[in-house]
Amino acid sequence: METAIITGASKGLGASVAKLFLESGINVIGISRSDNTKLYDYAKQNNATYHFIACDLSEQASLQKACKSVDEILFHETLSKVYLINNAGLVDPIDRAENIEMDDLMKQVQINTVAPMTLTNHFLKKASEHHVQLLAAVVTSGAAEKPKYGWSVYSSTKASINMYTQVAAIEQEGTEHAVIAFSPGVMDTEMQETIRSSSQEAFKDVDSFRALKENNLLRGTDIIGGVLIDILMDDENVENGKIYDVREYI
User: Fold this and answer.
1) ∠ CA 242-247-250 to the nearest 5 degrees?
2) Labelling 109: which of 24, 102, 152, 205 has CA 20 to 30 A away?
3) Are the C-beta atoms of 162 and 243 separated by less than 8 Å?
4) CA dihedral 25, 27, 32, 37 (to 10 degrees)
5) How many CB atoms lie within 10 A of CB 10?
6) 122 has pLDDT over 90
7) Per-residue pLDDT at 179
8) Quick check: 216 pLDDT over 80?
9) Strands 133-139 and 2-7
10) Of residues 184, 192, 202, the one with CA closest to residue 246
11) What pLDDT is stored for residue 217 in this prediction?
12) 39, exposed or middle or buried, with CB in 10 Å at 0-12, 13-18, 19+?
């Protein structure tokens, strides 16, 4: 049996990835603040199961509780493979560095960097203990490599998670596990709505993001999710430690 753990599974790319896994007959555990009842229907239609675990990834206690809940659901004798999709992310606050408050900065770092590192660390250990293969992916961004005015925190968190991916991958050499990052490009999501609502003073590139929406240049999350799943499910060819870019495929 195979199971996918997905953060931010209630909407956007996370919901698309969850749906596509379920349509493939793979069980899904969704970790997010809110539930998506449509995923239960997809599970039923495809003889799979969907479990929802409520979690605020910005809070350490909530994250630890979620890990324990997943362990109780997941690890038993029939499990053969686990996919971990660290999808949840936060782009706020968008502003000049000197205007960002400490609490907002720490929340963004916790969600974008600490939470995916914590989850990957935890399930690498659990998978090894239970002799189960883990294929872990973290959703990153081109902002990790290209500085953008107003994105000092977001760009930094994505750059750090890319390096984490590469280091964790080196450590897993010789095992059956793999850790990758996936850059999905621009998608039609709530995050894009947040970006477009920024002021010119806070984010100098805001007009270019508004133009993407106006010109229908934002890709659908089902298309992007399909690329990620194709990469992961071709596990014999997954390149451990690679920062995959969706532009290589579509």
Assistant:
1) 120
2) 205
3) yes
4) 60
5) 22
6) yes
7) 98
8) no
9) unpaired
10) 184
11) 74
12) buried
The side-by-side arrangement of strands in the sheet containing 81-86 is 50-54, 27-32, 2-7, 81-86, 133-139, 178-183, 243-245
Which of 42, 50, 83, 154 is flagged as catalytic?
Answer: 154
**Hey, what amino acid is at 26?**
I
Region of 164 please: left (phi>0), alpha (psi -120 to 50) or beta: alpha
The residues pairing with 115 across neighbouring beta strands, listed in sequence order, are none
State yes or no: is 50 an active-site residue.
no
Please give the structure tokens belonging to residue 120. Answer: 């990957």
Token pair of 92 as six digits: 């706020």
Report which residue type is found at 7.
T
Tell whether omega for the bond before 184 is within 30 degrees of 0, i.e. cis.
no
Burial class for 215, CB neighbours closer than 10 Å (0-12, 13-18, 19+): exposed
Report the alpha-carbon distance of residue 37 to residue 52 in Å, rounded: 9
Residue 189 reports pLDDT greater than 90? no
Of 61, 59, 16, the closest CA to residue 39 belongs to 16
DSSP-assigned letter for residue 29: E
CA 236 – CA 229 distance, rounded (Å): 13
**Contacts from 158-162 at CB under 8 Å and sequence distance 24+?**
158/112, 160/113, 161/112, 161/113, 161/116, 161/117, 162/243
The pTM is what? 0.94
- Give the mean pLDDT of 30-59: 97
Average pLDDT value for the chain: 94
